[in-house]
Amino acid sequence: MTNNGILIKQLIDSFRNNDHRQIEELIAQAADSYTKEPQIQLIAGMSKYANGKFSAAKEIFTELIQAFPKYADAYNNLGLVNKMKGEIAEAKKNFREAIALNPNSPLGYTNLGNVQVLDHQYKEAITQYRSALEINSNYHVAKANLGNCYRLIGDYKTSISVLKECLISHPNYATGYTYLSMTYMAISETDNARFAIDKSLKISPANTKAQIVSGEIHFYEEKYEEAFKCFLEVVEKEPWQDEAWVGLGKIYASRGENKKSIECYKKALSCELVGVQAKANLANVLITAGLYSEAKTLLLETLKEIPNDKFLNYNLGVQYFTEHNYPDAIKYLSKSSYIHADKFLLEAYFKNNDLEKFKHLLKSRLQEKDACNAQIGSLCSRAKYKWKIETINPYCSAPLDLIYRKNLIDRSDTYHIINTCIRSLDKKKYGEAKQQGRLTNGLQTAGNIFTSTRQEIVRISEIIRSNVQEYRELHSSSSEPFLKNWPGNYVIQGWIISMEKGGSLNRHMHETSWLTGTLYLNIPEKINGDEGSIVVSMTDEKEDCEESMRVIKPRTGDFLLFPASLQHNTIPFNSNERRIVLAFDVLPR
User: Fold this and answer.
1) Residue 384: other Cβ atoms inside 10 A
2) Residue range 54-69: mean pLDDT, rounded
3) Which residues of 415-451 are buried (b: 16+ CB within 10 A; e: fewer)?
4) Could you say which DSSP state residue 449 is in?
5) Are 406 and 467 in contact (CB under 8 A)?
């Protein structure tokens, strides 16, 4: 074997062992051979790429192509670097050059398909993967990526079939199991998703993508500490992984730690390749933190780059909606294909008094499979009172008859739980408090309080789940659609609202909830009449009438559940004692 041959073997062995320092030392010792032997330069660039030094890798591959313009592997690797740097058009050009130079290799087609996926060109990507498989029907990388692409277009049955076929012929291909796990997560088959990702990590424990997916599954399962560990481990070893920063950002946001969440999302944005979802999530946290102007600027700037992105248009539309700027809300929501967009668009038409557009979209939505949701149910009720539009309510026709109220003060542990909650709130144990537009003279905890592992919060979660089950059993014979179509899996999201004298909460509903509830931690004793009461209603306030609303005067320890289609607000109170409630939603997964 020649000296160069020995050097190349040493470099390959070092690369397989992730020993990038050794690669640098070997190349430094063989400076003359470096410029003469393309494979040595190629490995040097691949080492830089694997170590996250994308700019240095790009420089090496560019010089390599200048010296060896017919070297297909150099174009493939330059394309990978450009893909990681977010230079999608350049990456496509590189991969097409690689295909032209070596049309009988499946690698170029597969790489081109991968970058087309990033550009949401899924049909084109499927064509490339199939081209790769025509050259080599057993090429597992193309087959796994084909299966993943079917997941991205929502064809989960085909995705699972293709991925299983891939894993039969290549049972030790970790990425195949990772993609299979992601497909199972898309259809909420959590057990299968966990089994597949555990297989992937057993084969390749250091696989970054698998660790990220494992963290996302933990987050879905409400195992927030385990999710946190997965994402943290990734960013500590590969700080350029934007998806892991996004994961950490989601966890901090759910804890109400908005400053840390914003820091994580900004670190995600600083990565050379960042997904649109990171920008949309950052905008949501900025909104939660009250930084509305900064959030809108971020969304508008990103939309200039990707004008048709469904997440960005949805988030910007919802922000305009919350500001009561319905024309602009309609403008952006109508551009989004996101699953919740047309529900907010329907409500924006309603608020903007666009009767004909409202009726047209409502008729269309009532024919969809997911018509049974609180927001559409609420709009059907409100349209009946506002415009005399008669429809069969797809969610709940008589929500006022399905209000559940129980006082828990007789429970042996209720006083202890309530007092512990109030003390913890005063000591800011539940994260940052925030102001919100509907709330007067009060503060609300940020994020989901049920991510807390504090004993009193865990106990309240158990109480809620027990009473939700009792609620279902109590109404088991009901024909109301929301009870007959109860979600197979749900998560509880909650927050505490503390109001001072004169405090109130404006009329609203929880659009994505299934069931809404409240535990009253403290109600002032010396208040008059209906002060401090909650009003639940099937209508907007202008259309309120005796048959459409109920006024409920709560007591400390009261536990309340009602269909999420009911709008609600509170009546101001005149007392120096605080009104403190733990509000929550039962959310379908």
Assistant:
1) 18
2) 89
3) eebbebbbebbeeeebbbbbebeebeebbbbbbbbbb
4) G
5) yes
Cα angle, residue 228 at apex, residues 222 and 230 outer, rounded to 5°: 110
The pLDDT score that the predictor gives to residue 1 is 47
The per-residue pLDDT for range 440-486, each reduced to its tens digit, is: 999 998 889 998 888 999 999 999 999 999 999 999 999 999 999 99
- On whether the CB atoms of residues 131 and 100 are closer than 8 A, the answer is no
Question: Which of the two residues, 3 and 542, has the higher pLDDT score?
Answer: 542
- Look up residue 356 and give its two tokens: 């004909």
For residue 353, give both structure tokens.
């008094």
What residues contact 513, with CB distance under 8 A and at least 6 apart?
Answer: 374, 564, 585, 586, 587
> What is d(CA 445, CA 443) in angstroms, rounded to the nearest whole number?
7
Ordered domains of the chain (ranges, CATH): 3-237 (1.25.40.10), 298-395 (1.25.40), 400-588 (2.60.120.620)
SS3 252: helix
Mean pLDDT (the chain, rounded)? 89
With tokens 């946190």, the residue in question is 228
Rg of the chain over all Cα atoms, to the nearest angstrom? 28
| Residue 552, token pair as written in the block | 């409920």
CA 210: distance to chain centroid?
A: 17
pLDDT at position 376 is 95
Six token digits for residue 404: 């559940």
Answer with the residue of higher pLDDT: 250 or 32.
250
Nearest alpha-carbon partner for 142 in 103, 98, 110, 167: 110
Which pTM does this prediction carry?
0.72
Residue with tokens 């804890």: 255
Tell me the three state secondary structure of residue 445.
strand
Q: Are 16 and 49 in contact (CB under 8 A)?
A: no
Q: What is the pLDDT of residues 8-23, one digit of tens each?
A: 676 666 656 666 676 6
Per-residue pLDDT at 509 exceeds 70: yes
Cα(162)–Cα(126) distance, integer angstroms: 12
Q: What is the DSSP letter of 305?
A: H
Q: Closest Cα to residue 399, out of 375, 369, 378?
A: 378
Nearest to 58 by CA among 70, 41, 72: 41
